[in-house]
Amino acid sequence: MSNAVEMSLVRKTFGKKVAVEGIDLTVPEGSLYGFIGPNGAGKTTTIRMIMAILFPDSGELSVLGRKSAVESRDRIGYLPEERGVYKKMKVASFLKHMARLKGMESAGLHQKVMVWLERVGLADVARKKCEELSKGMQQKVQFVCCVLHDPDLLILDEPFSGLDPVNMRLLRDLIDEQHTAGKTVIFSTHVMPQAESLCDHIVMIHNGQKVLDDSLDAIRSRFDPKAVLFEPFEGGAEGSNGSVAAVGTLAGVAAVRESRGVHEAVLADGADAQAVLRAIVGVGPMSRVELHRPTLEDVFIEMVGGHTGESAEQIRQALHSSHNPEDEPTAEPSKAEVVS
Predict the structure, then answer these.
(1) Which pTM value belongs to this model?
(2) Helix, strand, or coil here: 142?
(3) Which of 10, 16, 244, 307 qualifies as a cystine partner to 59, CB 3.0-4.6 A?
């Protein structure tokens, strides 16, 4: 299998600030990679170097077998973090214009545009000016712009920011469809559950450095369960409170805590998770008992904390205090973004 993207010891600085430090990365064709980490971690800088909008200070990089994305621009669909459309152009005209820049023929193009607008629920805005659309609508128009020319590689920077849950699901389904069709997809996000629900491979970036690069299955198998979730039946022999108290005395249970009606038995270091699970089942009637595997956020916190010595709370705050591009003014696409 060929590789869609290859990076070797890539470094990028802005003055004295090191934005990306020595990143090695191989993205096979047909894969779906998620770049995760807080804003400012280096995800967008990495993507811009892949897109040849920025150039590395050192290291080597290739995209679709070429030394620069510019040489493969008609095979790439790119959604930048800074949302942008030509405000005064009508939606359908804007999409046709961008498609022609990607080498598409005019014959049959209008029909293709209308099919895609229908798919994203925007068929009725084809003749409206882009500036008349909400930011969420503009974002969907930009996604159509990315996929209209049937690219081999999709690069999406924070594609879900600013979307409501319904349109987030729609976009996620469309991304998954592109991947199923054999496209290579790279997207970045600081929202870990989005990557967890969509990706087959995760690249964690923190302070410009890659801290993890592995398949989602391998990550899950590598990091042992840290807790057992359980729900006692109401009205059991000792009552639910008695069952909870009993679980807290079991060997291998460090603590019991409750969140939204679900109890969590936190495992002691070195505890046998399966043994604890069986012991909880033996305490009394349970409506639910299951291992609670660490989320990507849990893994990220453990990995970063091990590298930097930061506390879990510090890392969690960095993840959840990320800015929202929805709050930024909509810009027109830069020449680099149009050409790329």
Answers:
(1) 0.79
(2) helix
(3) 10
